[in-house]
Amino acid sequence: MQISEASRVSGVSARSLRHYEDEGLIVPGRCSNGFRDYCQSTIDRVLVIRSLLESGLPLRLIREVLPRLNGEPDAGAGVVCAQFLHEVQSYRDRLAARIAMLSDQRAALDAYLQQARRTDP
């Protein structure tokens, strides 16, 4: 699919798609006329990138972590510095805290709905 369709399907602007490509996060194919050609796996990768960005992970860490999340070959190769590990751990901890908070909110809503159903005439 071309960039306009990829933008619509992913919910990410065409400008962001070009930026992700410039940053080396995605590599869309090219049609014979030079237009970008986005396959579903690239769209899936864009959605992961967007989710990580929305969760607060900086682009430079996403660039390092993304291959590991997608199970790419040789993704574990190379030495990982302590600062990078600390930043990823910090991100993971923030994500775990958000998940816990959302679980608590869901439980509170479930309790409210259960109570409301008991008192509904």
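Above is the first protein from milestone M3; the second protein from the same milestone is given next.
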Amino acid sequence: MKNGVLFLLIGNSGSGKDSILNAILSNWSEEITPIKVPKRYITRPSHKTEPFLSVTPKEFIKMKNNNRFSLTWHIYDLDYGVPKIVEQWLSEGKIVIINVSRTIIPHARRLFPELKVVFVKVPFEITLARIKSRGREAENDEMFKLRVNRAKKNQNYPDADIIIDNSGDLQIAVNSLRNYLLSFVQKSE
């Protein structure tokens, strides 16, 4: 690949974005083309269910003011930042995949016009069960309620470049995304 491709992975909390991505990475050959997944900076304490770099709100603001992020967003009372390294990876011809909030897609498209949006779709009932089972928040917690309400309202994303159904066997969703990624590698060679 001469130029890299940026894929933004979106979907409701509990849709399985990280599970799909981890499965892709564990079986991807670097000989095809490297896939890079930047660790996001998030203003919350570390948690075993998601790899990220924990920073304080004050540290986040300082980093943002020092232009250390390519993309940022604020959701569920948390700040998220994607480090600038993604721009270098794209210039080196790598595939870059980032789990982001759908709220930043219009801004991201202005910065990276060729990006592709991957929407991971899961029926609300499955989403609710997954949010409960991962245990990040108690069910009476305000953040839990916000995630559930947002999932109920956002069951579709018509502007996605591809929709991956992750309501059944994880491997089916993984294969769908893998085939989609491979179609870009083949086009670029």
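Note on the second protein: The helical segments are 17-26, 57-65, 85-91, 105-111, 124-134, 142-153, 170-188.
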